[in-house]
């Protein structure tokens, strides 16, 4: 029987043809298979590596990138310790699909999974379509733990990739082991009848029995001593309260994928509007957004709770290749200009063209003139902007001030109301 300290499950995902299978076979078998056919479903290889003096076994899963296998491959995310998202540096469309893969990872993988972004086929330098800097920026903006470029053909960085994964996971596991040792006094003691109680499981049962539906509450397990059962009772009461709140919600709208892009040139106040609405303050001297940021806020529309995921992309030219990826799943796009700056208004047609190219399907379009508090410096009259909104078929026009909060809440209430009204068709009732 092979001796090893840890076994980790590593899952490779990404579009078909980006070279996932070739990376796995180069690392595990040392070969590059010419004319490799597309993976059908899921395949896996095993390789043992050394991290310091420890033997670490990597179980590397190679998933199909084709759409027809997605329902199969999603099930392999749940128990993954690391997910390696691969794109082809010589194929822009494979990079453009990364937000979709990220959304899938967020939906199905463990919250603490190690996320690695890999640009493969770096040997095709003459055919490169995705600059390395763009990959680095996307990685940083989206919270990846590591980024590098590889070539399965000439083995560039292939060993580095998997050895880095093994080291990161090993260090994390050792830290967990050390932390767990501090709770040794909570071990089961059969002599006095003290048993570990899984509070999350108990809470899950309570919610399911109340709501008649499955709600995943979490994956952290808590140990409680029997003599501290009054704590369990208190937590149980809290869970029952949560269950009651869930069950009294007549309608639930899933708007988690609604990326409300706030667009236009740098310095118009997009970030300030977002901070004012989600955090209730105005920060003087806010720095330009680097890449993309987002905030989440839940609002009540009549008796419905609507969750808004509000994305704040950079207006700087160097981030445009990243920003347009976030248009694809948007349900509303807010075009912001500075009404004291004519040039920001004049650039609106450019932003409209970009949204038209990259958005999919029907999208709610809102035009916002910001900085209405600077009355003396106004360069764009309200009537001019309103006519522009009407001529270009915007769904709504409003002027705001992030500084004194004029119309900021009204803006997002309108967005939520209109989206809610459009999404009312498939109503899910509970209770």
From TrEMBL:
InterPro entries named among the record's database cross-references: P-loop_NTPase (IPR027417), Rab (IPR050227), Small_GTP-bd (IPR005225), Small_GTPase (IPR001806)
Naturally occurring in which organism (per UniProt): Haemonchus placei
Keyword annotations of the record: Cytoplasm, Cytoplasmic vesicle, Golgi apparatus, GTP-binding, Hydrolase, Lipoprotein, Lysosome, Magnesium, Membrane, Metal-binding, Methylation, Nucleotide-binding, Prenylation
Record family assignment: Belongs to the small GTPase superfamily. Rab family.
Lineage start: Eukaryota, Metazoa, Ecdysozoa, Nematoda, Chromadorea
Role description: The small GTPases Rab are key regulators of intracellular membrane trafficking, from the formation of transport vesicles to their fusion with membranes. Rabs cycle between an inactive GDP-bound form and an active GTP-bound form that is able to recruit to membranes different sets of downstream effectors directly responsible for vesicle formation, movement, tethering and fusion. RAB30 is required for maintaining the structural integrity of the Golgi apparatus, possibly by mediating interactions with cytoplasmic scaffolding proteins.
GO molecular function: G protein activity; GTP binding; metal ion binding
Stored SMART domains: ARF (SM00177), RAB (SM00175), RAN (SM00176), RAS (SM00173), RHO (SM00174)
Catalyzed reactions: GTP + H2O = GDP + phosphate + H(+)
Annotated NCBIfam families: small_GTP
Entry annotated with the keyword rRNA processing: no
PANTHER family: RAS-RELATED PROTEIN RAB
Protein name: Ras-related protein Rab-30
EC number(s) per entry: 3.6.5.2
Cofactor(s) the protein needs: Mg(2+)
A single Gene Ontology CC term: cytoplasmic vesicle
Membrane topology: Lipid-anchor
CDD domains for the chain: Rab
Pfam family membership, one: Ras
Compartments where found: Cytoplasmic vesicle, Autophagosome membrane; Golgi apparatus, cis-Golgi network; Golgi apparatus, trans-Golgi network membrane; Lysosome
């Amino acid at each position: 029987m092979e001796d090893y300290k840890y076994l980790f499950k590593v899952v490779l995902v990404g579009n078909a043809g980006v070279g996932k299978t070739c990376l796995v076979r180069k690392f595990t078998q040392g070969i590059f298979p010419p004319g490799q056919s597309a993976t059908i479903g899921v395949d896996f290889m095993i390789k043992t590596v050394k991290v310091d003096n420890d033997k670490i076994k990597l179980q590397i899963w190679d998933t199909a990138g084709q759409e027809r296998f997605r329902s199969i491959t999603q099930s392999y995310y749940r128990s993954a310790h690391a997910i390696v998202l691969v794109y082809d540096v010589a194929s822009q469309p494979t990079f453009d699909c990364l937000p979709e893969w990220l959304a899938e990872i967020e939906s199905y993988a463990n919250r603490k999974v190690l996320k690695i972004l890999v640009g493969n086929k770096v040997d095709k330098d003459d055919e490169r379509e995705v600059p390395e800097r763009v990959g680095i920026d996307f990685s940083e903006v989206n919270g990846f733990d590591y980024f590098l470029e590889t070539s399965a053909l000439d083995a560039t960085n292939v060993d580095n990739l998997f050895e880095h994964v093994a080291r990161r996971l090993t260090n994390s596991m050792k830290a967990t082991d050390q932390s767990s040792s501090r709770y040794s006094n909570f071990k089961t003691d059969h002599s006095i009848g003290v048993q570990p109680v899984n509070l999350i499981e108990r809470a899950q049962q309570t919610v399911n029995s109340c709501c008649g539906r499955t709600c995943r509450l979490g994956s952290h397990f808590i140990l409680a001593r029997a003599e501290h059962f009054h704590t369990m009772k208190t937590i149980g009461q809290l869970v029952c309260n949560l269950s009651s709140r869930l069950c009294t919600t007549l309608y639930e709208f899933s708007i988690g994928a609604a990326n409300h892009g706030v667009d236009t040139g740098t310095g118009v106040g997009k970030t300030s509007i977002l901070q004012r609405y989600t955090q209730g303050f105005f920060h003087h001297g806010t720095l330009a957004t680097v890449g993309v940021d987002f905030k989440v806020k839940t609002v009540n529309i009549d008796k419905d709770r609507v969750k808004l995921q509000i994305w704040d992309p950079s207006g700087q030219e160097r981030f445009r290749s990243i920003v347009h990826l976030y248009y694809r799943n948007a349900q509303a796009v807010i075009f912001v200009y500075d009404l004291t700056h004519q040039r920001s208004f004049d650039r609106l047609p450019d932003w409209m063209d970009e949204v038209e190219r990259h958005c999919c399907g029907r999208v709610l379009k809102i035009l916002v003139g910001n900085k209405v508090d600077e009355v003396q410096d106004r360069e764009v009259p309200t009537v001019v902007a309103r006519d522009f909104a009407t001529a270009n078929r915007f769904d709504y026009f409003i002027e705001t001030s992030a500084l004194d909060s004029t119309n900021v809440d009204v803006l997002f209430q309108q967005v939520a109301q209109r989206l809610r009204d459009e999404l009312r068709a498939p109503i899910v009732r509970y209770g």
